[in-house]
Design brief:
It is built from 10 helices and 16 strands. The protein has 345 residues and is α/β, with parallel strands linked by helices.
Length: 345
């Protein structure tokens, strides 16, 4: 909905994180920065944001991104929906970069792609020389106000690059160019404040959690040299409703862990991802005990191109939607099928 001067309406929802972090005004409260700036503070610090769109600012959460939960993300999706229904043309979410890729992917699964939704943050907090938060916020608002950004699903915008949620990952602890989409590259970029869209991915399957239902806990287990399966043996007793295994390479685990994983797969959904962070889980290449063919034959669900972190988001939301084991397998297959290619022979 355009305002009289032609600008589009964008809502900025802040969750805290580095982009909102500064030191306490009073002395003796520690040297480190913490999330203190509100959404209004962030917008006020970048006057050009008001030129890009008519902006409303809302402080939705105020915490480090590692403190966010899946329940927070379901509630965030509901808030985005309410803002869009009230007339927003686009929504920007600001948060810490530690879990930014998980938030973006969750929103992509929870929201229809009718309006642009953009997640952004900062690698350098406002007390440092050259903080990147202001530029990232402006770019995110410019993308959220761009009609061509609709239909792309939830986007991640940092460093003047536009990334799709399903591929983007944080790849560096401190670089301002930390976010990369390894398999594909960015979907687009910004030049002189103008978004350019080069790639339009197929939409992800939409998942709707059951009303009022809690998001069941899902464990993420990364395999390492010499793993003997003891951690996997504890998954059920600790109350987890699902498990994602970040396996070696194309989807391999030590043969000693196979019995425990098979027992789990007969009771709860167990998803097989790769710890490499790029490429797809194989399905047809290796046949030794603990290889991908063996594990899939024992009931594990291949994650396709999703890394373990995103596979955990998808499994968590699928369980919150009440999907049974075969439906979980189907939703992972549908997600994998958003990357098209020739049929298997």
């Amino acid at each position: 909905m355009q305002v009289e001067d032609g600008r589009r309406r964008v809502v900025v929802l802040s969750l805290g994180g580095t982009i909102a972090s500064t030191r306490a005004a009073a002395e003796g409260q520690g040297r480190g920065v913490t999330p203190r700036l509100t959404a209004a503070d962030l917008v006020a610090a970048v006057p050009a944001v008001r030129e890009a769109a008519e902006v409303d600012s809302v402080s939705f959460r105020q915490c480090p991104s590692g403190d966010l939960t899946m329940t927070d993300l379901v509630e965030l999706a509901a808030e985005v929906t309410a803002r869009v229904e009230a007339g927003a043309d686009g929504v920007v979410v600001t948060q810490g970069t530690d879990t930014l890729e998980e938030t973006a992917f969750a929103l992509d699964l929870l929201l229809p792609p009718s309006r642009p939704v953009v997640v952004t943050g900062a690698m350098r907090n406002p007390t440092l020389a050259g903080p990147d938060g202001p530029a990232n916020l402006l770019a995110a608002v410019q993308v959220a106000a761009c009609p061509q950004a609709a239909g792309l699903g939830c986007l991640v915008v940092l460093d003047d690059e536009i990334h799709g949620s399903r591929f983007v990952r944080k790849t560096h602890t401190s670089s301002t160019g930390a976010f990369r989409s390894g398999p594909t590259g960015p979907l687009g970029w910004l030049t002189e404040g103008r978004p350019r869209i080069a790639v339009r991915p197929a939409p992800l399957p939409l998942i709707t959690p059951l009303p009022g239902a809690a998001v069941p806990p899902v464990a993420l287990l990364t395999m390492s040299l010499g793993d003997d399966g003891r951690l996997a043996e504890q998954v059920l007793s600790l109350g987890y409703a699902g498990l994602v295994v970040q396996a070696f390479g194309g989807g391999h685990v030590p043969h000693r862990t196979v019995p425990a994983l098979e027992r789990l797969a007969h009771t709860i959904p167990v998803v097989l991802a790769s710890r490499t962070g790029a490429g797809e889980v194989l399905t047809d290449t290796y046949g030794f005990p603990g290889a991908e063919q063996d594990l899939i034959g024992r009931g594990l669900v291949p994650a396709g191109f999703l890394d373990g972190v995103k596979a955990r988001v998808l499994l968590s939301l699928a369980l919150a939607a009440g999907l049974a084991a075969e439906q979980v397998r189907e939703v992972f297959a549908r997600t994998a099928a958003t990357v098209t290619g020739p049929p298997r022979r």
